[in-house]
Amino acid sequence: MHRPAVLLSAQGVVTSFTTPEGRELRVLDGVDLDLHEGEIVALLGRSGSGKSTLLRTLIGLLRPSQGEVRYHGRPVTGPEPGMAMVFQSFALFPWLTVQQNVELGLEAQGVPAQERRRRALAAIDLIGLDGFESAFPKELSGGMRQRVGFARALVTDPDVLCMDEPFSALDVLTAENLRSELLELWAERRIPTRAILIVTHNIEEAVLMADRILVLSADPGRFRAELRVGLPQPRDRQEPAFRELVERIYAVMTTPQPPAAPDTASDRTSLGFRLPKAPIAQLSGLIEEVASRPGAREDLPVLAGGMRLEIDDLFPLTDAAELLGLARVSHGDIVLLPPGLGFAEAETQVRKQLFAQYLLAHVPLIAHIRQVLDTRPSRRAPEERFLRELEDFMPEEDAGQVLETAIDWGRYAELFAYDYNSGVLSLDPPEDLD
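Given the sequence above, the corresponding structure tokens read:
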């Protein structure tokens, strides 16, 4: 049996960054990948799994710290003319017209003006934007701006089309329409592309589009599963085989993995544990929603659909519920534990008291903040003090997000107060929680 040619490959790719404090932050660890002619491959993973970093490494926008990327057997040392990228944020130049934006890649390749114009107009027509050639991005809707992004990528006749969450900034109906049109162009061979690689955090989108789905774990990113999608196009979300595959992916992504090596920065007993970004209002809503289901248990795909949450919104909430001892998540299901049921059934003030107990028992950072405030005569401390401590464990941006979550949770539980303008945490008024 003839095996399709490998257009793009990665062998042993490691990508690391150095934090301002001099610590190595490994984002990708030993990634191997082959992209074959004639296939659509989806890279799927939680936020922080390194999906976008991997895509930028494959396309030559980032150099790997170790390992190698090859395109048609040649080492990739920078952007390749045969590969093109569609970005989540559209990345259009606002001072250029639609046609001028589409011509940019051709101009960079030295294509003569007349040929640029001909190819740009053809790409604009192909993607359904004829009549808007002279429009500026500010005149276009989000869906139309992303069409310009597709036209700009396709006008260079790439044989590998890479897409970084290209539909996530669009409303549901616009995303569905544009996704279907792209699949139609691909199926009818109306575009020169020979393979597509898409990064997504949307499980159903991956199953709708891909022939093969690669699931990444996080911290650091490495492939934990490969799933082949043997469903004919166009695909129906309601088909049992479709729903079964969605369930399998949720199970893969919620089944705990043994740690590769001890890591004090990610240990839940450590001050530097990366708290999930889970706003208290949404976390409370999740607990209430699960409590209302039979047996206080629910399938995550059903829960995500009912609450209209993407996995990047859902998983931080389920992670937080697990961290605080409110729920157990495994194999695609969530079930409330007795503390979670008690929280769901309690009145507001009792909820706050319970939540304070859970935080002090399970979140070392919040217990540490409270202890510092308790032992200071002023009962006050600047947030910068805690940020500096967190930056010993993680990059500055991550430290800010973790402290923001801790402050949100601690304020709800009335463990401490926070003044946004001064950036000061305090016990106001001081309380005895014993």
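Residues 260-266, 430-434 have pLDDT under 50 and may be disordered. Try to locate this feature in the token string yourself.
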